[in-house]
Amino acid sequence: MIKKLLILSSILTTTLISLRANAQDFLPSNLLLMNDYFAHHVIVAEKSTHTLYLYENDEGKPRLIKTFQMATGQKVGNKEYQGDKRTPEGVYFFNQFLDHNDLIKRHGELGAQYGVGAFVLDYPNPIDKAQGKTGGGIWLHSTDNEPRIDKGLDSKGCLVAHNVNLIDIARYIEINKTNIVVVHNLKFFSEETWKREKNEVIDTFNGWLDAWSKEDTDKYLSHYSRTDFEDPFRGRYNTFAQYKRAVFSNPGKPEIKISNLTVLKADDYVVVTFKQDYKSNTVNDIGKKTLYLKRDPYYKWKIVAERWQRIPMDITNEREHLSFEPSQRFFTSQDPKQIFTLNLTLTRPYSEN
């Protein structure tokens, strides 16, 4: 009886939050700008209610289309170190998919515990690493024993969904493009506050881009945190600044084209992702650039990390002119029993379409 009441309470809470999220005057504080290339869909995982929210892009704004029940780490709180059984909180990309056969090959029969498949998160991200956080292997996966999901706090740190729900969610995911934002509580802004938060980040981004295009070295470097910035190749701020001064001293100005800007927010940082087309006297490439920004003591957004991933031009040009259509690219069947090769215990999942 108590278990049923807890489940009913969770359903009612989720329904109320979903109604509020759909209200025209309120928008999720974590999704500040979406687009049809990098952020046609974004997943938000709310740990306090054990709910996955699936948002789609609606002319730059997030629009809630589905919710799903999930389980998280056995211990509450943000992940700090390997083996603490907590689920990390932040903004992450899905960078790999492991199907059921992959899981069995890697882990033998123990791989069955991950269900029909697993999407790998890029934990620890640059912010996590800068904070000294350890561990890895954080996945969004399903399970061979679905009743465990009703417990809420049940995994070793992963996000666990029902098998049919994971198969459904997979239709909206693209590897290295789709983000998942993990929070303890999903918060909402009035549209006015949401726009103000978004514009603060975009104004900072535009100032950075303008200084870069003009090779205004001092202005450009002012957008980076002197204390917290670290580059995986150039090191801390001083060596990075020295390198950039040398680059800017070369003759000619670069031609930089930016498109598909995405702005996602964690509790204390934002992640800005965009397609960058860069041409100079020596370099001509195109790819995904990701900036991680945190507020300084004066509440100004400063870049603390940046990452670059080259995208082949033929793939980029072809994909950019196509509208994303949800499709099943990861699973061979909609029926978990046809995918599974070992024992599978299913329940009727809670989800809202």
UniProtKB/TrEMBL annotation:
<feature type="domain" description="L,D-TPase catalytic">
    <location>
        <begin position="41"/>
        <end position="183"/>
    </location>
</feature>
<dbReference type="Pfam" id="PF03734">
    <property type="entry name" value="YkuD"/>
</dbReference>
<feature type="active site" description="Nucleophile">
    <location>
        <position position="158"/>
    </location>
</feature>
<dbReference type="InterPro" id="IPR038063">
    <property type="entry name" value="Transpep_catalytic_dom"/>
</dbReference>
<dbReference type="InterPro" id="IPR032710">
    <property type="entry name" value="NTF2-like_dom_sf"/>
</dbReference>
<keyword id="KW-0961">Cell wall biogenesis/degradation</keyword>
<comment type="similarity">
    <text>Belongs to the YkuD family.</text>
</comment>
<feature type="signal peptide">
    <location>
        <begin position="1"/>
        <end position="23"/>
    </location>
</feature>
<dbReference type="Pfam" id="PF24125">
    <property type="entry name" value="Cds6_C"/>
</dbReference>
<keyword id="KW-0573">Peptidoglycan synthesis</keyword>
<feature type="active site" description="Proton donor/acceptor">
    <location>
        <position position="141"/>
    </location>
</feature>
<comment type="pathway">
    <text>Cell wall biogenesis; peptidoglycan biosynthesis.</text>
</comment>
<dbReference type="InterPro" id="IPR005490">
    <property type="entry name" value="LD_TPept_cat_dom"/>
</dbReference>
<keyword id="KW-0732">Signal</keyword>
<keyword id="KW-0133">Cell shape</keyword>
<keyword id="KW-0808">Transferase</keyword>
<dbReference type="InterPro" id="IPR056203">
    <property type="entry name" value="Cds6_C"/>
</dbReference>
<protein>
    <recommendedName>
        <fullName>L,D-TPase catalytic domain-containing protein</fullName>
    </recommendedName>
</protein>
